[in-house]
Structure formats: C-alpha cells, structure tokens
Amino acid sequence: MVIPILHYLTFCSVLFGIGVIGVLVKRNALVILMSIELMINSINLLLAAFSTYLNDPAGQIFVFFIMVVAAAEVAVGLAIIVLIFRTTHTIDIDVLNKLKW
Amino acid sequence: MFTTYLFYFLCILAIYAALMVLVSRKPIHSVLYLVLVFFAIAGHYILLNAQFLAVVHIIVYAGAIMVLFLFTVMLLNLNREETSPKAGWVKVSAIVAGGLLMLVMIGVFRGYEMAVTSNPALTQIGLVKNLGRILFDDYIIPFELSSVLFLTAMIGAVMLGKKEQIKKTYD
Fold it and tell me: Could you read off the pLDDT of A30-57 as tens digits, one per residue?
C-alpha cells in the first residue's frame, strides 16, 4: 500500500507553518535559527518524497546540496550570534534593533 | 500496512516535537526537541527508501548542526528562560499569520493527485550506488563548488569568532 503524496504535502505544510510561527513568535535568536532549520527540513522531506514518487534522482541530489548550504549557514549564523553575544551580552532580537530603520 | 502506521506515527512525533520546540522556554529543551524532529524525519527518509539521505541527515543534522547548537547554548551560558515575552497581540497575530499560511498551503494542495510512477518500497534511486553515480557524473561542478562554499563558511566562522578583533561598541 502506497501512502498518497497528499499526506506528505499536508505534513510538510504543517511543519513549515510551525517553523514560520517560530520565527515570528520567539525572541531568542538561537531559537529563530532553529525554526529556520525546521522549515528547511520540511522542504527537504517534500523534495525527497516527490523524487521517490516520480522516480527521479535529481530531487535527492538537490536535498543533498540543500543540506550542504544549511550546514554552512548554521556555522556562520552561530558565529554571528556568538559575536553579538560577546559585544552586547544579549541575543534578544527585541534589544538588537539598531539596524531596524 | 505496518509502514502506513509507522508513517503516521512519525508524522505525529515530528509535529509534536516541533510544537515543543516553540513551547519550551529554555533553549536547551528546544535543541533536544529539535533533535527528536530530525530523527523522525530520518525515519521518513528510510520509509521513502532514501537510505543515503537518511544517513547523511543523521550525520549532518543530528551529529553536526545540533552539537553546534548545544555547544553554543552551553558555552555562552544562554540557557535562560525568556524573561519578558513578547506582547500578547504580537504573539496572537504571529500565530494567526503562520496558521493562515499553513491553512492556505493545505487548501491549495487539497485534492491534489499524482500518477505515482514507482512504489517507494521498491524503488532503487535512493541507494548510495545510484546517487553517487549521478552526483559524480551530472552534478560534479555543483559538488566541487559546494566544497568552496564550505571553505568560505569555515574561514568566515573562524574570522568572526576571533576574540581580539572585537571592539566594544555597546555596553
């Protein structure tokens, strides 16, 4: 019995929506970065699901490259967070509004 | 039949853990719940017979990225609860906006059907042998470029993390 692709679409939409809510609600920059990871993962899973269902390996290769970019992004993002914490002693995004306007 | 139950179990586990990432007040609990999400998604990859992706996902996400997050939380002693949460209306409007996005996406996809050309349990495209051949055949240039990206990210992280160059601009 094959699971319909619609279930993957719904599941990944829910996961993506939770990630969006996390970015909007949380104030801790670290948790915001984690919510972005959540969104990236939901898209990855959807790409892999379509790749398997359509029998096309290109989707899985793309998931691999997205993982590469996400790893690089997290390394630089966490370095920036460490730097911000060292200079301002907070990673609360409501305090870090110097570049806002 | 067993795989169907496993699929729904992994879906519920992933959504529950993702919600707990947001609900937890301490960042370290969020990190640990996110590890749970990643393991559930690795289970989904195995159900899709994408074995290479499952292994890479566990190594890269659960192994590398989450350890990076954990070290950042522990070394900087960031494990404090949020002292003054956002105003109520900001939270409510954020949840309404995110929930509407979720509903719109689910509504758009509703009724979507696709001619399934392969049985996920039998397909062979996710195996290391097949993916490796395609990766080093058709996608060799992006693969090499990604190594340059990694080198750039590494140099950037080290440059940002250097201690003596920081000027005290805030107090």
Answer: 899 999 999 999 999 999 999 988 888 8
Tokens 């440059």 belong to residue: B159
B98-109 in b/e form (b: 16+ CB < 10 A) is beebbeebbeee
Residue B168 has pLDDT above 60, yes or no: no
Tell which CATH architecture fits domain B1-81: Up-down Bundle (1.20)
Across the interface, which of B52, B106, B154 has its CB nearest the CB of A13?
B106
ipTM score of complex: 0.91
Q: Pick A41's closest partner by Cβ from B41, B106, B142.
A: B41
Three-class secondary structure of residue B146 per DSSP: helix
Interface test with A, best of B58, B61, B103, B163 (most A CBs within 10 A): B61
For A:60-79, CB contacts with B below 8 A are: 60-61, 63-65, 67-76, 78-79
Q: Hey, what's the torsion of the CAs at A70, B93, B12, A49, to 10 degrees?
A: -40
d(CA A44, CA A66): 8
- Domains of chain A by range and CATH? 5-88 (1.10.287.3510)
- Using a CB-CB cut-off of 8 Å, the residues of chain B touching A75 are 68, 153-154, 156-157
Q: Which pair of structure tokens corresponds to residue B62?
A: 């659960």
The verdict on A90 touching B (C-beta cutoff 8 Å) is: no
